[in-house]
Design goal:
Elements lengths: L1 E4 L2 H12 L10 H14 L1 H12 L12 H10 L2 H19 L6 E4 L5 E8 L2 E5 L8 H14 L3 E5 L10 H10 L3 E3 L3 H10 L9 E3 L4 H10 L4 E2 L7 E6 L5 H12 L6 E6 L2 H15 L5 H11 E5 L3 H11 L3 E5 L3 H5 L7 E4 L5 H6 L25 E8 L2 H17 L3 H8 L5
Parallel strand pairs: 1-11, 4-5, 4-7, 5-6, 7-8, 9-10, 9-12, 10-11, 12-13
Antiparallel strand pairs: 2-3, 3-14
């Protein structure tokens, strides 16, 4: 990792380098993605099965594309009972946390006879995308599906790429069953996003698509937005640790490495007021790397997007954290709760040395699907509201409208919309 003094120049260089990881930077793949989407939109299942054969080396047809109940039962048999029990505990924690987010419809009636309100209802069909192969994460299945279930979504479908033999990662299938997925389809990539966005003979059109994926999946979600709602266009994972001289270097190093192992584009940043801690963390990283299975990936990640910044003051360190707006922010200081009050931008905030980031990834309950690439400045973690839609309610009596009809007519005429004005005026003609 690069160790630098934090100043305005190094901060700007950091922000510029992080922007290179934005999915919007990979425009060279957009034409390929758009062609896949258009083919699936026009040709439906045929295109879907052709792409599955081409990219996944799996031959499918309408009779094989849906995961059967027997396949799910077989998946349970392939996993350890302990792991299944842990997934159930995690799902319960996620459910309890997200139930606190649910809001109810409301109505307000005034004495003049006017009624205003908001009707809040779940979307009807939600689609979740789950990567396959070495990037299969059952935890993401839980995080995508449980909030939708809490919201009351009637039908949840899942798409995930098959292996060449037509099988699906057993952890993915068991997590889907625990979370409450209604149907699982063996399709992946941009073609799966297109199928859920437009519908095919086998796969229904959904109202919203959530879930992570590679650059082709991210660009497909971006291209289909508007035809369907999406959670976000997620970039590579990232962590920023904000620490002072009370932090333990080994803990900090371990937490930085936990995100760097995701892929070569992942970012791990330490901002500290202690040169001593910076040096110790750098040494600990080298020691820990000797024991980690994904050390090659981690080294590339740290070489490209790993930083240790030494700040003159905690105020400077906090300013840098707010500028980066990291997906995951750990605060390991003498008073983390006080520091937290000054944080404006972060996807998830972890307080204290025993609140390591993987706690949020797997078990605590808050959603681990978080804004990346500095979008925490204006986006939020996936939540129950993402699966809800809101309708405004307006009901005026004659008495209530009579009090304000001239104001409305004036407003409409100022915008040269005389038909709007007339729509109100005719109700009070002599």
């Amino acid at each position: 990792m690069k160790t630098l003094q934090l100043n305005s120049k190094t901060k700007q260089e950091l922000l510029g380098n992080l922007l290179n990881r934005n999915p919007g930077s990979y425009t060279q793949y957009e034409q390929t993605v758009n062609e896949i989407i258009e083919n699936v939109r026009i040709n439906g299942d045929k295109a879907l099965f052709d792409y599955t054969l081409k990219f996944d080396k799996c031959e499918l047809d309408a009779s094989k594309v849906t995961v059967t109940r027997q396949e799910i039962e077989d998946a349970y048999a392939k996993l350890s009972p302990d792991f299944i029990e842990v997934m159930k505990k995690s799902a319960d924690n996620i459910r309890v946390f997200h139930e606190k987010q649910k809001r109810n419809s409301w109505i307000e009636t005034k004495e003049d006879g006017s009624i205003l309100g908001q009707r809040i209802l779940p979307i009807e069909i939600s689609g979740v995308y789950v990567p396959g192969g070495k990037a299969a994460y059952p935890s993401s299945v839980l995080m995508n599906v449980v909030p939708a279930k809490v919201a009351g979504v009637e039908r949840i479908i899942m798409c995930t790429p098959p292996q060449a033999d037509g099988s699906v990662n057993p952890g993915t299938l068991v997590a889907a069953d625990i979370a409450g997925v209604d149907e699982v389809y063996k399709v992946g990539g941009a073609q799966a996003i297109a199928a859920m966005a437009f519908g095919t003979e086998s796969i229904p059109k959904v109202d919203k698509i959530t879930g992570p994926g590679n650059i082709f999946v991210a660009l497909a979600k971006k291209a289909c937005f508007g035809h369907v709602s999406i959670d976000s266009i997620a970039g590579p994972s990232e962590i920023l640790v904000l620490a002072d001289d009370t932090a333990r270097a080994r803990y900090v190093a371990a937490d930085l490495l936990s995100q760097a192992e995701h892929d070569e584009l992942a970012s791990a940043i330490l901002v500290t007021t202690s040169q001593k801690l910076a040096d110790e963390v750098s040494n600990e990283i080298e020691e820990l790397l000797k024991t980690l299975s994904r050390a090659d990936i981690i080294r590339k990640s740290l070489e490209n997007y790993g930083y240790i910044f030494v700040a003159d003051t905690m105020e400077d360190a906090i300013d840098a954290a707010n500028a980066v707006a990291s997906e995951h922010l750990e605060i390991i200081t003498s008073n983390p709760f006080e520091v937290m009050t000054k944080i404006k931008n972060a996807g998830a905030i972890f307080l204290g040395e025993y609140s390591s980031e993987p706690l949020g990834d797997y078990f605590a309950g808050p959603n681990h699907i978080l804004p990346t690439n500095r979008t925490a400045r204006f986006f939020s973690p996936l939540n129950v509201d993402d699966f809800m839609k809101k309708s405004s309610i307006i009901a005026y009596s004659r008495e209530a409208l009579e009090k304000v009809h001239k104001d409305i007519e004036l407003f409409a005429k100022e915008e040269s919309l005389t038909a709007h004005a007339n729509s109100i005026a005719v109700r009070f003609e002599k």
